[in-house]
Amino acid sequence: MRNGKRTSLEDVARKAGVSRSTVSRVINNDPNVKTETREHVLKIIEQERFNPSTVARSMVTGRTQVIGVVFPHEYHVFFNDPYYFPALLEGVADMATRRDYAMLLWVRQSGEDEGIFYRRILQNGLMDGVIIASDSKNSLVNYLADMQIPLATVERPSRNPEHVSYVSIDNFAATRTVIEHLISLGRRRIALVAGAVDNMDAQDRLEAFRQVMGEAGLPNDLIVYGDFQRDAAYQATKPLLDKNIDAIFASSDMMAQGVYAALQEAGMTIPDDVAVVGFDDLPTASLLRPALTTIRQPIREKGAVATGLLLDIVEGKQTEARHVVLPTTLIVRESSGVVEKTKTHSAS
């Protein structure tokens, strides 16, 4: 801006000695612009403090530079988890910012009808694409796909996964690593505190638990459900305590906290009486006493990768669905009885 007058696209073009359309292509990251031309125009833009309006840019690109991030859970689920969802959101925000996009967050209000929630999302005209941060077997994926709205999911979607770009982890391999670790330590009566019944990650870990325990010739029916919540896991653990268990696999660290509370209330010692393994490696895992053995998954990276997948679709860089599987690592601490080196499972 000079002398109170807002710098225009034409002003930048004149200063740079290029056409207006060239400046527009530079602003919108057109790959066909020569490197030296791009650098020259960007230098003029910086000198002139030129800031193209969002409306003008959207008219040129057909994009708003806004993506939606949908958490298909009610507020209490989102805000009662101080680690997983914030870390995921941090990854989304970082990648969106690096690629010059804003973020619109969608969380269901308490008691809000699921259909009304989806309708609000679908009727919004500001978003170039949508990230679904947890599938929960909802129908929003199908609605978005039918409307040809760019989409990426965190977790493998429950419906038509071959047609949707997503980032996930190998829950089967991670669960196998946990069970084999416990078996190697002599544990045989291993129970599972499973996550939410409508969550694909939780269902994969449940199915893997049954399979691996069955392969080992061990009972695979010592299963309760903790809904990924500390208090629910605390209540769910109590019926297990008279079943002669010697280990518990909690399929989230948040639930492992509830398991600890139930065991300690009953006067049972971790790991002497019951070994405990969690999943996520949240910051609290190493602070528990005894420190929690757990599966570390790259939560923040999952958010960043999902955002990259979505923006590649939005910007026309990718037309086919892409599936990214990130590695997990078993972090062995005192709660399983023996401290040893960590074991990483690489993505397949």
Give a description of the structure.
Helix 9 (171-184) crosses helix 10 (200-215). This protein has helices spanning 9-16, 20-27, 35-48, 54-61, 75-79, 84-98, 114-122, 140-146, 171-184, 200-215, 230-237, 253-265, 299-314; strands spanning 66-74, 102-108, 129-132, 151-154, 165-169, 190-194, 223-225, 247-250, 275-280, 293-296, 323-326, 328-331, 343-345. The chain has 3 domains: 9-61, lambda repressor-like DNA-binding domains (434 Repressor (Amino-terminal Domain), Orthogonal Bundle); 66-168 and 300-326, Response regulator (Rossmann fold), CATH 3.40.50.2300; 171-298 and 329-345, 3-Layer(aba) Sandwich (Rossmann fold), CATH 3.40.50.2300. The protein is α/β, with parallel strands linked by helices and 348 residues long. The N and C termini lie far apart (53 Å). The strands form 2 sheets. It has a 7-stranded mixed sheet with strand order 7-6-8-9-10-12-13, with helices on both faces. A 6-stranded parallel sheet has the order 2-1-3-4-5-11, with helices on both faces. The protein has 13 helices and 13 strands. It is 41% helix and 18% strand. Strand 3, helix 8 (140-146) and strand 4 (151-154) form a beta-alpha-beta unit. The radius of gyration is 25 Å and the shape is elongated.
